[in-house]
Write a structure and sequence with these properties.
mainly alpha; elongated; DUF3106; DUF3106 domain-containing protein
Length: about 160
Amino acid sequence: MPMRRSTNMILCCLVALCCLAGAGEAAPTPYSWETLSPAQQQALQSVQGNWDSLPAVRREQLVRGADRWLSLKAPERERARQRFSAWRRLSPEKQEQVRQNLAQLRNLPPEQQEAIRQRFQEFSRLPEEDRRRLRQQWQSLPPETRRQLLNERRNVNIRRPMLRR
């Protein structure tokens, strides 16, 4: 009989603990829609419908992205909108090529990454007509010549434009 009484007592305690645990409202999960600020919700409104079905890791990435977006000044946001719009206009094949190029860039040593960024900035500062002409010049070269120039460029860290005006 004492054994039965102690078993009943343990059972009652377990039931009471279960009831207490479920008595309060469930705490919101990290990055639940309700825990986001109104500004974050507005920035993420396009994913609101499926927010709860997203993995926690993806929600965290989106919240960090929303926070970065909210920290941008108006001109920076406009530039980001334009770049995103241009990205969406690319074909899936072209998007994949861009991803591969970025992966290759990330695998380079930091000095080479910086040299490439500087050359790109120099190119970007050229007048539109000069950039167009350089692109046409590059595209008119035979593929083997382009490969050869790229290989030479990788082996020599020169910061001048590849093609002459």
